[in-house]
Amino acid sequence: MTPSPVYSTVPRTADVVIIGGGVMGTSIAFHLAEAGVRNIVVVERGELGRGSSGKPIGGVRAHFSDPLNIELGHRSLRAFHNFQERPGADIRLDTVGYLFLLTTEQQATDFDAAVRLQNSLGVPSRMTAPDEARRLCPYVSTEGLVAAAHSPADGHARPALVVQGYARAAARAGAVLATHTAVTGLDTTGDRITAVHTDRGRIDCATVVCAAGAWSARIGDLAGVPLPVRPVRRQLAFTVPLTPPAPRIPFTIDFSSSAYFHNSDDGLLFGLADPAEPDGFDTTWTPRWLELFREVARHRAPALAGMETAGGWAGLYEVTPDHNALIGRSGEIVNFLYATGFSGHGFLQAPAVGEIVRDLYLERTPCVDVGPLSADRFREGAGIRPESHVV
Questions:
Q1: Taking the model in full, what pTM does it have?
Q2: Phi, psi at residue 364, to the nearest 5°?
């Protein structure tokens, strides 16, 4: 991504300060600017898109079990398809589909129910037999497979290009993107935030939006608004260029282990969520992690187990207790909005969430009712929203 200009000081005032310059923060900035909001400052502690949005390829899907996540994913997919026209950027969207590999009857039953729900909401997903799963992805071994779920309209795109597209359009509309600028404090008077303090100066403001990803709990603490988000490292690896080239395959996931793989330039990308990974901000890539993936691959996709890799990458998930996002406006600090805690689904939901936060700011009815995603749901006695299609 092209480095952003570094400001020696930040603007002294803003109508909206967005904390976090990843895909969520830049989407929100774009949608606000597009709606005519002009005095916007995005504050980012590093470069744009170098936090959780820095992953080289991001999946985009509407294949979820929770109706809210289905709607957010489905609406965002439409925006990704239209990205070249609005805001105007090539994001290398590849509609290869998603393929979930299922190894128990209970998984098959649960996914079948989710597919019916998705279909009712306009998502063209379907259940498939093991033999068809292998036809869709020749690397797959059918041994032990009970069924698979295929969502052909899903795929993957490049998060860095999405961030860049949103950021450039927001900047053209007058938004200030203050990179290498850390938030050090917030001033509050009564039920409102009145200023954001940074290491490059103070910004008096009318509204603050927290889109700080894995760092959001700290921003919530500064505002006095609990945001139960914890950082968890996720790692992936890339193969060397493959000869002959890899076939074009879906984004394929072994649901029991969370191991996944898909095309990446002239090779494949491997990923897996280590269940023993502790919370923390460490983003060191560890080759030892790769053995966890190879162990799964030896059984589920044997040809992958011996493939040579050319390094990898580690980033952070922003995880909430129920693996669902926090989106809303604080009831206590009325000019504090938040969009965080996406638990690995932020990139794919960013276009829709940008629209929603815009509408919350403008006090309009959002395109999707995100009331159930309020952070207040974790208070004593409140219910949580289960999402089973977590990778």
A1: 0.95
A2: -105, 160
